[in-house]
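Supplementary material to the annual report.
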Amino acid sequence: NAGVTQTPKFRILKIGQSMTLQCTQDMNHNYMYWYRQDPGMGLKLIYYSVGAGITDKGEVPNGYNVSRSTTEDFPLRLELAAPSQTSVYFCASSYPGRLGNTIYFGEGSWLTVV
Amino acid sequence: AQTVTQSQPEMSVQEAETVTLSCTYDTSESDYYLFWYKQPPSRQMILVIRQEAYKQQNATENRFSVNFQKAAKSFSLKISDSQLGDAAMYFCAYRSPLTQGGSEKLVFGKGMKLTVNP
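Predicted assembly:
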């Protein structure tokens, strides 16, 4: 049972570089999310998607872009990395509905911008 | 917008004893979901327990139970017979029900660090 898989797990970026965090899920979930967690804080929503071809901004979208071309994949793109984007990034997915509403998280991606 | 508050940044408990973690939230919605997530040092987010607001009965999962007070907007987690493996960050989270065009987004509290002393 793979669940939600994120890559890479660790990455160091230089200021101004760009990169893509990959996320894939094998549970056929419609909904996918990207969260960031800063030290000592809870998770904040960056972007989310309710299905292939549909994405929307969360609480902290600036500096990021996403796409959702398939149900399985939801990559997060960082353009022009800044030190403020140093954080742990979590991808998550869920199946909508009253019963199937548990959100499953990936193991996190540690990103440092120097 | 909904908010979740965990006012205690840290707590400690002796192994085998009981500890209660507090959480309050603010919402104008009548139907919603509440969750407690555990985050060990590995940083993985692990669902501990969930509560549907329309259910009056408090949720229970083995040694974990909640005290859900809807009128007071309070959602505390009780851990009985604490074990060393319970040491982690604990996050309270709120989620709105599915609405037209909605997404079931989670709103998290800032978390609380639980230490379990042997």
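Chain A is about 0% helix and 50% strand.
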